[in-house]
Amino acid sequence: MNEAGMSTYIIIICLILFVYAVFSMTKKKQDGEKSGTGNKYGKWIGGGLGWAFGGPIGAILGFAMGSVLDGVRIGKSFYQGTARGDFSMSLLVLSAAVMKADGKVVKSELEYVRSFFLSQFGLEETNRLIQILREVLNQEINLRDVSVQVGQFMDYPSRLQLLHYLFGIAMADKMVDKAEENVIEQISEYMGVGHAEFASIRAMFVRDINNAYDILELTPDATNDELKKAYRRLAVQYHPDKVAHLGEDVKKAATEKFQNLNAAYEEIKKQRGMI
What we know:
Structural class: mainly alpha
């Protein structure tokens, strides 16, 4: 049997097992049995189906969905297959990676994520996503595989906005921990984001003496012409319209970043006495 045939065969078996597990869990619930066996089936079969249909991200989310199967309507997909859906699922897994980075998950981080989801998806969907997030937080996350998958399927402006959001989580407790920063930098590298772009976004959250230059992806010895060219290039790259398809809240965050870019440019112009 060739590789394609084997993959199809495995998927069919997974589907049969999944249907059987759901049927068994439903029957046990109706019969009043209290065994936890059904939940174990749900976790592993959900994870298997996630890997088949959604790669590393799908596997993590599939396992998490299996863990909360009794509290979720089966007909609702966890991997939506749209630009906005893919973005939200990536947020879910990478949010967990950053939240776990410093060895503790604080209330302010959960509130930050919940607030974002509320603005994007509404109360009912947010409650479901937060429930899944809590399960993902208990799992090992292969940061490289997940980030590489995001880099392959997410457009570049969306990847930059994702980094901005992850730094927002890290700043939720008013300070970006070094371990959190390191995890975000790894995610950035695995997604294929350039070092200069990462440094630019980092400078919006971690303050140091060259912040304005970092935001513009320059060093203090850059000429005035280089400064103008860098600003024009980044103004196009970071324009909020680039991520408008991801929802109003994402566009709002992008607008904030765009304003930071303008502020950095004006600060350097003022320092240099440029008109």
